[in-house]
Every structure is written in C-alpha cells, then in structure tokens.
Amino acid sequence: MPLATTPLYDTLGWFIQGATGPVAGNGTKMIDDPDNPGQKIQAGRLAIRTVVGKSLMVIAGDTALAEYFPTLLAEVGAGNTTGYNNLLQSFTDFVQQAVSTQTGVYKGKSMRDAHNFATYSRFGSAAVQKSTAADFDLFVGDVASAATSLNVPNSVIGQLGTLLYSVKGDIVY
Q1: CATH code at 127?
Q2: Which of 67, 87, 108, 117 is most enclosed, with most CB atoms within 10 A?
Q3: Whole-model pTM above 0.85?
Q4: For residue 160, what are the CA distances in angstroms to 23, 44, 64, 120?
Q5: How far apart are CA 30 and CA 35, in angstroms?
Q6: Closest CA to 56 of 145, 157, 161
C-alpha cells in the first residue's frame, strides 16, 4: 500500500529535488539522505527537515525567543547537540505527519504539554512557563524567514504557516 501523501507533501518533495518535472508522487519518493550517507529518506521529509533545521538556527539567534529555550541553548553552547538533534527529529516528525497525513510519525508530547514548563522542563523556565501570542507570532515568522532563505515558494510557506497556526491554541493559552 502506498504511503499517504498530499499535494503539499509532494510539492515539498518536488522542490527539494530541484523543482523540475511533475509534482505528483514526489513527497514519498525515496532519495539519498545527504546527512546520512548510504541511507534513503522520503523527499518530502528531507524538505521538511531542511526547513526545520534552518528554522531552529534562526530561532536560536532570535533573542526574543531565547527565554523559551535556556536548556537547549546552554547544551548547544557547551557542544552537546543531543537535545538539538532530538528537537530537530521531533519537530520534523510533527510537520511531516501534519503535512503528509501519514500516521504514527510524530510520537512526541501534545503541543500543550511540550510548550509548558510545568509539564516539560526543557521548554521555558520557572519565570517563563508558557508562550505568549506575540512570541508565537515571532516563532512562525522565524520559520517563514528560514523557509524564505531556502527559496521555498511563498505559496508553500503560506501553507506551512497555516499548519503552525492550527496549533496556536494548544501552545498559547
């Protein structure tokens, strides 16, 4: 049985492969994983991971959002990338599942629990336990900025923004 896909997932897969030829079927197409020699990855997932990785770098440099990631920033500053790699994997899984409609990809916490210091000590701090609406907007803007820097088409960035805003109520409450 073929893997589930959507026009957006196919477009992302098509885009990461150079944006030539037909779009249909490119999200689930298995291609070489440039970060893991000898391994294959769905083209749509590679596109998502690329945008997520760039987004995490933009977010890490956004001083307005640093208060939500003190543990992660301290770890990376000390040369420990385990937490970063886990976040990259989890955020990529979340977006892939949402965009492709493939089930069982994201196995992380609920968005509410993952973005509340009381239920997940890696997010925020005792002083800053939850995200504000304004900071959520900054976060989405940072993701859009990262995607723009990778030349992702504006129509695709808009769809990714819509996806992120669909969980705003679980993150900002």
Answers
A1: 1.10.490.10
A2: 87
A3: yes
A4: 18, 13, 22, 25
A5: 14
A6: 145
